[in-house]
Design goal:
Blueprint lengths: L1 H13 L4 E2 L12 E5 L2 H10 L4 E5 H10 L6 E3 L6 E10 L3 H13 L4 H8 L23 H8 L1 E6 L7 E2 L8 E2 L1 H17 L4 E6 L5 H7 L4 E7 L2 H6 E3 L4 E10 L3 H4 L4 H7 L4 E5 L3 H6 L4
Parallel strand pairs: 2-13, 3-13, 6-9, 6-10
Antiparallel strand pairs: 1-2, 3-12, 4-12, 5-10, 5-11, 5-12, 7-8
Helix pairs in contact: 1-2, 4-6, 4-7, 5-7
Amino acid sequence: MKKILSVALAVLMLTFALVACDMPGANLAYGKECLAVATQLDALNGLVKGDADIAVIDSVMAGYYMKSVDTFKDYQVLENVVLAEEKYGIAAKKGNDALMGKVNEALIALADTEYKAVADTYGLTTELLVKADTTNPYAAATDGSWDKVAGAKKVIIGYTLFAPIAYKEGDGADAPLKGFDIDLAKAVFAYLNEKYSTEVAVEFIIIDWNQKESMLENGSIDLVWNGMTITPEREAEMCISVPYLANKQVAVIKKADAEKYAAADTAAFADKAKDAVIIVEKGSAGEALVAPVE
């Protein structure tokens, strides 16, 4: 698997393109320059190419790639530096409370079974947040969003390549899609189909992460299920599930730069990184941290 992933990453690196963060007049919280790219995987590849000094990405992803992919064997997560602690949520269009109520219901019902089993498969058991007694805020929702999905017999879920959350095992269009969120979504709708005698098939489509809100709004997708950080702004714009996975924003560097950026804590890191070029995913929590909007 390592070899296959390494080849796939090499191909991605050949087509990789950088875009400067579109933050005119903003003061960077970290580094001298921010580069924004399409995905967090692109951010790691940009680091390998030498386009940046530091990649700010999700700890869930960083832990997987640093341990499992040969391309990143000479890179590491910077110790003692946690730029933010977060919680992941699943998003639907604002007002689609009934659909989210069913997703929450299934997550809670599966808390001690499939939810834990899927997490164990991908080494994420310590990050789990849903429990059997978690409250479902949309339990009584009566809008037609669940009925619409049930009637269509299909739910469309938007994702990006983001291991171990979602990734292709191998190359080509027929390479199987795997990951924690992929398997969990399948388990959730299998539960709902059995309980409510529905036949909802799960369809996954890859999306531009920066367009997720508009795709929910125009109905191109029904759910964003891809390690999305819950923020007040997103809660105002979308209908979001109960928090289901914990995450942190971390800094990835070359192992050879460990001494250069070594810091006792996050505050000290800001000073160490003041002359660094930092690469992030456009529209991500990492971008908001590095180049906050003023």
